[in-house]
Design a protein that fits this description.
This protein has about 190 residues and is an alpha+beta fold. It is about 35% helix and about 25% strand. The longest helix has 27 residues. The protein is globular, with a radius of gyration of 21 Å. About 15% of the residues have low confidence.
Length: about 190
């Protein structure tokens, strides 16, 4: 008799729990166009996060040239944020196309190198020279940025609008046409 009661009680409990989660979630936040909004008085603010529609999390790192940069330094411009490493085959494949996009279009490219996974920063410099890259190379030496963005496969590419909102996210190598097609959708 007790076993039968649990078989009835558990589904009811699960339905109540699910209803409570949905009711609680919709009371403080709204979902729309894959964006998450927080109500702040009469206005809505986009939440920070790593999904399309979120505000891209800000970070501060040094470039290969030793300059300190923040992602927020580039507000007002469209940004292609690419996570890569020199030992990554697909990263090597897409770099010439990313360089071409940087040269051809009005877009900021920030290439976040997973420096903590490299043999040395010298390898990164050699790679940049070999591929003749002219966009900023950001060094994620302690994995703080890749952890912030929950980077699993590389390359991973984010495209941000001029307000810093994520408009596109891709896993794997992208070619020039694909990059261009997605960039043209972003203001």
């Amino acid at each position: 008799m007790r076993i039968t009661n649990w078989h009835v009680f558990m589904p009811v409990l699960m339905v109540i729990t699910l209803f409570t989660i949905v009711a609680f979630d919709s009371s403080g936040a709204q979902q729309g166009e894959n964006a998450a909004f927080i109500k702040n008085g009469n206005k809505e603010e986009v939440m920070e996060g790593t999904e399309v529609g979120n505000m891209a999390p800000d970070f501060r790192v040094e470039t290969l040239d030793g300059q300190e940069v923040r992602l927020s330094d580039f507000r007002g411009k469209r940004v292609v944020l690419n996570f890569w490493a020199t030992w990554c085959g697909p990263c090597r494949e897409e770099m010439p196309d990313i360089q071409r996009l940087f040269e051809d279009k009005d877009v900021i490219v920030l290439a976040v190198n997973l420096t903590y996974s490299e043999d040395s920063a010298k390898k990164v410099s050699e790679f940049v020279r070999e591929y003749e890259l002219t966009f900023p190379i950001l060094l994620d030496e302690n994995a703080s940025v890749s952890q912030l963005y929950r980077i699993q496969p590389i390359p991973t590419t984010y495209m941000l609008d001029s307000n810093g909102k994520i408009q596109y996210k891709a896993f794997g190598a992208m070619n020039y046409e694909w990059l261009l097609q997605e960039l043209q959708k972003i203001k």
